[in-house]
């Protein structure tokens, strides 16, 4: 059995119980599944989504995707209006919820602080 200890939270897991691709990624980053999930979200926020492509409100992480006329939208197409702390307002009808960062190791809240509030 291959054992891994997360370099952030210290959780130990057996990578033999995971699918091969997942276990290789966890071993590469030396992270448990939860810490690896937040690592990937953080990297996407910085490198892909940009400063107004995601919103962290009270520790809850949301991804703001472009409008689509398609059937499948986050929150069923409900319109959210975010006020970012830099003063920018973004209205979005395709918001996807990633989870509450507060439920993870405190490290993730330190590097992923709130950046907006919902105003509608």
How would you summarize what this structure contains?
This protein has 120 residues and is an alpha+beta fold. Helix content is 28%, strand content 28%. It has one domain.
- Major β-sheet, in short? 3 strands, antiparallel
Beta-strand content: 25-35%
- Amount of helix: 25-40%
Whole-angstrom Rg: 16 Å
Q: List the helices and strands in order.
A: EEHHEEEEEHE
| Coarse morphology | elongated
> How many separate domains?
1
Q: What's the N-to-C terminus distance?
A: 50 Å
Identify low-pLDDT runs.
Answer: none
Lateral arrangement of strands in the main beta sheet: 3-4-7
Counting DSSP H or I runs of 4 or more residues, the number of helices is 3
Calculate the mean pLDDT score and round it: 91
The structural class is alpha+beta
Overview features:
120 residues; alpha+beta; three-stranded antiparallel sheet; 8 strands
Structural notes for this entry:
- This protein is an alpha+beta fold and 120 residues long.
- The protein has one domain (3-118).
- It has 3 helices and 8 strands; from the N terminus they run ββααβββββαβ.
- Strands 3-4-7 form a 3-stranded antiparallel sheet, with helices on one face. The protein has a 3-stranded antiparallel sheet with strand order 6-5-8, with no helix packed on it. Strands 1-2 form a two-stranded antiparallel sheet.
- A hairpin with a 4-residue loop joins β5 and β6.
- The longest helix has 17 residues, at 33-49.
